[in-house]
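Prompt: May I have another protein with tokenized structure?
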Amino acid sequence: MSEPGRLAHSPPTAEPGSAMTAPRTGRRSRRAGKGKARGKPLLRKPGEAAPERREPASQPGPVYGALDLGTNNCRLLIARRTREGFRVVDAYSRIVRLGEGLTARGSLAEDAMTRAVEALKICADKMSRRGVTRSRLIATEACRTAANGADFIARVKAETGLALEIVSNEDEARLAVAGCAPLLDRACSSALVFDIGGGSTELIWVSMNDTRSARPGQRTRSPMKPRIEDWISLSCGVVTLAERHGGVEVSGPIYARMVDEVSERIAPFVERLRDARTDLSGGFHLLGTSGTVTTIAGVHLGLPRYDRNRVDGTWITPDDVQRVTRGLLEMNYDDRAAHPCVGRERADLVLAGCAIFDAIARAWPAERLRVADRGLREGILLSLMEADVSRNRRRRRRRRGPKSAAGPTSGSAQGAAQGETE
């Protein structure tokens, strides 16, 4: 797999109107928070869309949109670029279960497509009202594998005006890493990034290829880039696994069968990394991005309602996950549905997600797992913004071209040119 583009160091999703800055670093931006009171974190139920909060319309610069239509969820993020990364203008998320019944049927069901189209109409309206000028709208596993996936994409275009792009597994893995990169522990030599989706699970082994560190107080020009060493996409996610084994009534033996199935699918990737003599001497950690991982973290933290500000970037251990899993296995469906961090929309899927994580943790025993409430949308936004930065730099170089051709550039001029950044 090719190396992704330069990964911006700003973290992603927050509530509309909030700035994106690295979580829990212990340092604040010089510009952040001046003259502004910090608002209370907004708490909402799982799957509930974020309320709309408008920013002043006079703000300059392009407005970016990133939409991710997955097997289970439809998610939208709208943002403006800032010096630190980006500021969220609006966000939307709804569980649509587009891939419901796909495993048995081989095609998208009419009810599922209708649910997705209705959610996409809301996204289209938000993008129009927010004045989105640059966007990328992607569809993943459900549309990749469904026999009528292309027909559904055409229907979306006709009914909503949105031109969805069915991305490859490789592109999906690369965007997941780009979106989660700010949470990688640079003290480790490598990490396993995993994204447990509704219809597929991406596993990406990354190394921190730039071990240079800045002196205390020194500001680096760019963040260290994680390099993707290898990756795999498993054709099983929480929806497909729950449909095969059952998600409402999950006994111990059923859960064990789910773990065994995922372990069998993971085994070739484990062997591949072993054959490549993957170096773990510098330490590694797990980094998970998915509704499963954030739900587990919310349950572990004992939150009265899901709170992204508490979950995103938090560290937990595999033992913590095992305790949460045992507790969920002891609950019946109604108890899981009543849990504030699970909810009825995830109650029949959460144990399938736990089984996928269980298999991952057994294959790569790590001391720590970092939880990411971010992923593809944030990777899309950062890649779009980075492409614009690069384009603007090329334009400035072309405008400076005739002056450079007139004679050799002085040392001071060279320094000024090198120091010019967005």
Q: What stands out?
A: Residues 1-14, 21-58, 211-222, 404-422 have pLDDT under 50 and may be disordered. The first strand starts at residue 63 and ends at 69. The CA atoms of residues 107 and 146 lie 5 Å apart. The chain has 14 helices and eleven strands.
